[in-house]
Amino acid sequence: NQRVLTGITTTGTPHLGNYVGAIRPAIAASRQTDTDTFYFLADFHALIKCQDPEALNQSTREIAATWLALGLDIDRSVFYRQSDIAEIPELMWILTCVCAKGLMNRAHAYKAAVDANLAEQEDADKAITMGLFSYPVLMAADILMFNANKVPVGKDQIQHVEMARDIAARFNHIYCKKAPLLALPDYQVDDNVAVLQGLDGRKMSKSYNNTIPLFLTEKQLQKHINKIKTNLLEPGEPKDPDSSTVFQIWQAFASPEQTSDMRQAFADGIGWGDAKKQLFALINEEIGDARERYHDLLARPDDIEAILQQGADKARAISKPLLEKIRTATGIRRLS
Ligand code: TYM
């Protein structure tokens, strides 16, 4: 069976972009029988961006509850928390020792942070932590620890998966030329899955502060949708669907028929207020039931914890023996 693995950083509250781009396709894949799926909460990655303990813990809880409420099949899929798998940071160290520093210098996320510091005339070497610099090595350990073949991600993460592949090849070359221990992963970017736009028309992202959280109350959801930026065209004036965020989000939730109907409605001059009301109804129908399950689950953190512990047991059954082989290959082993 093909091994599919992906992670989600436990900062912030899940938004429609995470749902459409990552969670919805992942949950659909968890129900397929010809793939083994591994989904995890990347809480070690969260430490890079978040040094507020309560916020990190709350986000972990919310993201776990989100996946479960949306119907992740926890019998078929391995669902765990990164920090429960002690083998991952250990593998990270081993990989750090075969990874050229120059590879990390080229990482987009690191370069963007350097540029941002330069722009503010701050000393990047003081502001950027080793955690941010080494982020792709930790991500490589996440992937390689489970010999994942396919890593579904958004475009922003492609480079990291390519780095994981490079690092795996380097490890195999040094330590196990004849029988490679690490599988070379491929990224999977689904072109049918949209990069959802946020309230201001840019990519929906926590860092742009333009998100629509997934499980708002109905009232709040309508309120957020009303905040989506539009042009000033009045009802009755034809509108261009392809430059409209309202239409872009519509498309991500609608059937093909509903999409072509909305396209026609734009041509016929549907008013923005009306289009947004319809968008609310469409999204609400898809996630309404999950919202209730989500709030039930959030009230039962012990149940979420028990599920994560079961997932960690399943994950460790795979990571422990592989790490043992990796240790042996490197010479970290008992004397005999
Ligand atoms: P993170 O937590 O930033 O995002 C999780 C996933 O959601 C996708 N995504 C989006 N897709 C469509 N539209 C959007 N507006 C949108 N916003 C986010 C992201 O591309 C990502 O796939 N480093 C990773 C987490 C990670 C990981 C891993 C992933 C840690 N280890 C190992 C795969 C394999 C991250 O920060 O994703």
TrEMBL record:
Motif stretch ('KMSKS' region): 203-207
| Pfam families to which the protein is assigned, alphabetical | tRNA-synt_1b
Keywords of the record, alphabetical order, are: Aminoacyl-tRNA synthetase, ATP-binding, Cytoplasm, Ligase, Nucleotide-binding, Protein biosynthesis
Tagged with keyword Transport: no
GO terms under cellular component: cytosol
User: What stretch of residues is annotated with the motif 'HIGH' region?
Assistant: 10-18
Q: Where in the cell is it found?
A: Cytoplasm
Name of the top EC class for this enzyme: ligase
Q: Report the NCBIfam families cross-referenced here.
A: trpS (TIGR00233)
Q: What is this protein called?
A: Tryptophan--tRNA ligase
What lineage does UniProt assign to this protein's organism? Bacteria, Pseudomonadati, Pseudomonadota, Gammaproteobacteria, Thiotrichales
